[in-house]
TrEMBL record:
Membrane disposition: Multi-pass membrane protein
Source organism of this protein record: Flavobacterium suzhouense
Gene3D superfamilies named among the record's database cross-references: MetI-like
InterPro entries tied to this protein: BP-dependent_transpt_permease, MetI-like, MetI-like_sf, OppC_N
Pfam families registered for this protein in UniProt: BPD_transp_1, OppC_N
The protein's name in its UniProt record: ABC transporter permease
UniProt entry keywords in alphabetical sequence: Cell membrane, Membrane, Transmembrane, Transmembrane helix, Transport
Main location per the UniProt record: membrane
PANTHER family per UniProt: D,D-DIPEPTIDE TRANSPORT SYSTEM PERMEASE PROTEIN DDPC-RELATED (PTHR43386:SF1), OLIGOPEPTIDE TRANSPORT SYSTEM PERMEASE PROTEIN APPC (PTHR43386)
PROSITE patterns: ABC_TM1
Domain ABC transmembrane type-1: 166-356
Length: 368
């Protein structure tokens, strides 16, 4: 079929599909989005924020395996919400070296790196159920647990923390980009369309914000709003709208001189209708490209804030916070504790930049 019969959107989609790295990056982002939504389904640690840990197994290498004794909790009742927010009350888990079961009790030795120092403890079988039997307890409540990526400095499962921590990076991107689009498109549109004093005021505001280092401005807004999960999202979003505003302003200034805008004015349409129904829909291509880049920038800024202790606060896991907690392990022979979240962040940011480049090429009407 002749290309002239396709819409511009269809042509852009065809060009995007031909970009191997762009498509691969988009698939990676979709997979990571799926992982973040169903984090507690996929993570080995189902507790809220994947915060279960035991200092006896801290800083273990990837592939570490240990016997885990689970003592059930009467309040540990599963619900649908557990799959999205984690278990509020979880069964107690105890790493052990070995155990023995008698008719009415279970004796276990707590895990330690030096077996000769292991402490023996005895608990009644009744804690596992009223009519619990020795074989049943041994088979159901003592199992081997493998930590695929090892454990962190607090003895928490590193893989689970990575999976749950992806929620922060994905969420900061969406919220910050949404805020930057709303604010940036509004100010850019009115500045480009009305010009004059309105344009001068908006550009004065943009230049002031742009002259302040991004991280310093985010820190100032974060301190004003207070430390917290959503405060960081708002702070990052309020520092990223200026680039969107400049691009939208330029697009609107160019498009307001076109014939279809002149025709809309001749028909008596209101300025708001002309801006939002006619001009903005025709100026979204560069804004989409900027949004992909801003998504990556928001992730890096949030990680920097978490590293400084101003991002998502403990016990909420974030990749920047995990790097902060373990960067000193790089010289202590266990660099993977800091490298794992760093590599995850690198791949996500790279994916968004590749998607942005692919969108730029696909939406460029001059390219073939």
């Amino acid at each position: 079929m002749d290309k002239t019969n396709h819409s511009l959107t269809g042509l852009a989609l065809q060009k995007f599909k031909k970009n191997f790295w762009g498509v691969l990056s988009f698939v990676f982002i979709v997979i990571l989005l799926f992982i973040s939504i169903f984090a507690y389904v996929l993570a080995p640690d189902k507790t809220v924020n994947a915060n279960w840990g035991d200092l006896s197994i801290h800083s273990k290498s990837p592939g570490f395996t240990v016997k885990m004794l689970t003592i059930p909790s009467k309040e540990d009742e599963g619900s649908v919400s557990d799959y999205f927010i984690g278990k509020q009350v979880a069964s107690e888990k105890i790493p052990i070296l070995k155990y023995s079961v008698t008719k009415d009790s279970l004796t276990y030795y707590e895990y330690t790196d030096e077996p000769s120092f292991a402490v023996a403890k005895t608990i009644p079988l009744s804690v596992f159920g009223k009519d619990a039997k020795a074989d049943y307890v041994g088979n159901e409540f003592v199992k081997e647990q493998k930590f695929i990526l090892g454990t962190d400095s607090q003895g928490r499962d590193l893989l689970s923390r990575l999976i749950v921590g992806s929620r922060v990076s994905i969420a900061i991107g969406f919220v910050a980009v949404f805020i930057s689009l709303v604010v940036g498109i509004f100010f850019g549109a009115i500045a480009g369309y009305y010009g004059g004093k309105v344009d001068a005021f908006v550009m004065w505001l943009v230049n002031i914000i742009w002259s302040i280092p991004t991280l310093l401005l985010v820190i100032a807004i974060t301190l004003a709003l207070g430390k917290g999960f959503w405060q960081v999202f708002v702070a990052v979003g309020l520092t990223m709208w200026v680039e969107v505003a400049r691009v939208v302003r330029g697009q609107v200034m160019s498009l307001k001189q076109t014939q279809f805008v002149t025709a809309a004015r001749a028909l008596g349409y209101k300025n708001s209708r002309i801006i939002f129904n006619h001009i903005l829909p025709n100026s979204m291509a560069p804004v989409i490209v900027i949004s992909a880049a801003n998504f990556a920038s928001a992730i890096l800024v949030e990680s920097g804030l978490s590293f400084l202790g101003l991002g998502a606060q403990p016990p909420i896991p974030s990749w920047g916070g995990m790097i902060k907690d373990h960067y000193n392990y790089i010289i202590l022979g266990k660099p993977y504790l800091a490298m794992a979240p760093g590599i995850a962040m690198l791949l996500l940011v790279l994916a968004f930049m590749m998607v942005g480049n692919a969108l730029r090429d696909a939406l460029d009407v001059k390219s073939e």
